Amino acid sequence: MGTTQLETVPEPKYWHLKTVLTEALDSEFAVGEILPNERELAARFGVARATLRQALEQLELEGRLQRRRGVGTTVAPPRMGVPLGSAQGTWPGAAGDAWQPADCAPATAPAAVARMLGARPDEQVHVVRRTRVSQGQPVAAELLYVPMSSVAELTGMDAPSGAARARVVLRELARHDLEGQDRAVELGSARADDAKALDRLPGAPVLVVTTRFFAEGRTAAVSVATYRADTCRLTFGDSGGVEIHHGPERRAS
């Protein structure tokens, strides 16, 4: 076969520098260690600071570095695995769940979520906010949408505000027999509220995992979890497969 045009393009300087920096991170620096400043690094590797910034940005995107406000650039811990196999057949809030409830309040669901729930556009549902932390850093934020009918036995006395209300909603939801669930995974950009919860800048790359929970022949709840793409990776167990759909409903399960 002939040489393609791309094969003749020389490797960008920042990409070569990224490879060199990766080797240095593996051999010279520990997790959490603060890197020297840009001026020192540029002088050490004999490159312009603009080239260095490009390499550092790429390493941050790949999850090797973290830029923390008031701290500097540090070596990131290994990415946290996000299991997506079909064996994950438990309700949110079940024993061993790593998520921490933060709040719960009634609100209308986004149009796409309302359609999945079979809810009217103006119908209010319980919106449970939860967060997930790894090694002291926020790595994911979740909005769990639960129709009022899924927790019909909930009373005002049983459901105080904030995290306590969230735990009660999760407890009542788990009273149903879970019949199954499916997940869809997409690459997205952090919205302002997600960015704040995840200590990222708006527009930072994120993984959006949407999960539907089925009970009594209907969708009993929908979870929209936003994961930091620089600190999380998707894992698939032996019982989990990957399906690729070319329509609007791309799905991974």
Give the H and E element order: HHHEEEEHEEHEHEEE
Q: Numbering strands along the chain, what is their spatial order in the largest sheet?
A: 4-5-6-9-8-7
Class from helix and strand fractions: alpha+beta
Radius of gyration: 22 Å
Q: How many beta-strand runs?
A: 10
> Which consecutive residue ranges, at least 5 long each, have pLDDT under 50?
1-6, 239-253
The helicity comes to: 10-25%
Beta-strand residue fraction = 25-35%
What is the end-to-end distance? Answer: 38 Å
Largest sheet: 6 strands, antiparallel
The helix count comes to 6
On the 0 to 100 scale, the average pLDDT is 82
Instruction: Write down the overall geometry.
Output: elongated
Pfam families: GntR, UTRA
Domain HTH gntR-type: 11-78
Keywords: DNA-binding, Transcription, Transcription regulation
Protein name: GntR family transcriptional regulator
Description:
It comes from Streptomyces huasconensis. This is GntR family transcriptional regulator. Keywords: DNA-binding, Transcription, Transcription regulation. InterPro entries: Bact_HTH_transcr_reg, Chorismate_lyase_/UTRA_dom_sf, Tscrpt_reg_HTH_GntR, UTRA, WH-like_DNA-bd_sf, WH_DNA-bd_sf. Strands 4-5-6-9-8-7 form a six-stranded antiparallel beta sheet. Strands 1-2 form a two-stranded antiparallel sheet. Strands 3-10 form a two-stranded parallel ribbon. With 253 residues, the chain is α+β, with helices and mostly antiparallel strands. Helix content is 25%, strand content 31%. A hairpin with a 2-residue loop joins strand 5 and strand 6. The N terminus and C terminus are likely disordered. Helix 1 crosses helix 3 and helix 2 crosses helix 3. The longest helix is centred in the first third of the chain and has 16 residues. The relative contact order is 0.15.
